[in-house]
Amino acid sequence: MGTNGSTMLEPLRQGLPPLDPTAVSDAASCALPARYEAVREARQFTRRTLDQWELGDRFDEVCLVVSELVTNALRHGLPAGAPRCAEQYPPVRLHLMRWTERLVCAVRDPSNDSPVAGDSEDFSAESGRGLFLVDSFSDGWGWHPLAGALSGKVVWALFRLQQNTGLRDTTR
Predict the structure, then answer these.
(1) Which residue, among 120, 8, 133, has the nearest Cα to 64 in the 3D structure?
(2) pLDDT above 70 (res 55)
(3) Phi-psi region for residue 30, left (φ > 0), alpha (ψ -120 to 50) or beta?
């Protein structure tokens, strides 16, 4: 198993994409419990949010990326001895943010370790393909450590959105 993987998949240690946070059109987030059912909850949350934002046609690729990011956070982002039922402090959080022409999915977890792409040459392997899929289905991804009182990191993926040419209220 190679340790240096494909250079295409080297994680980008950088902040969120160069998007003005004050110009965000819509934002939604949900806390996810430290158990694998959280992946299903993340998909349901993503479906409801994209439908609400009239982006349901992008559900398939966004949902696949959200599933991989949440699975990685649960599998690699939680301390080995962490109780899996600490409901009072859900350690993983999914954020969906929409700008006029961009959608960003970001998953926060308590680990300070960088996300590592597995050896993507073995396409039959069950694990290690998550970041390869994120890289394939999104228009860019990266990660950054959290600052301040929060420890851990955020891993994000960006999707470009088609401009609607129909009449639409752009004042809000």
Answers:
(1) 133
(2) yes
(3) beta
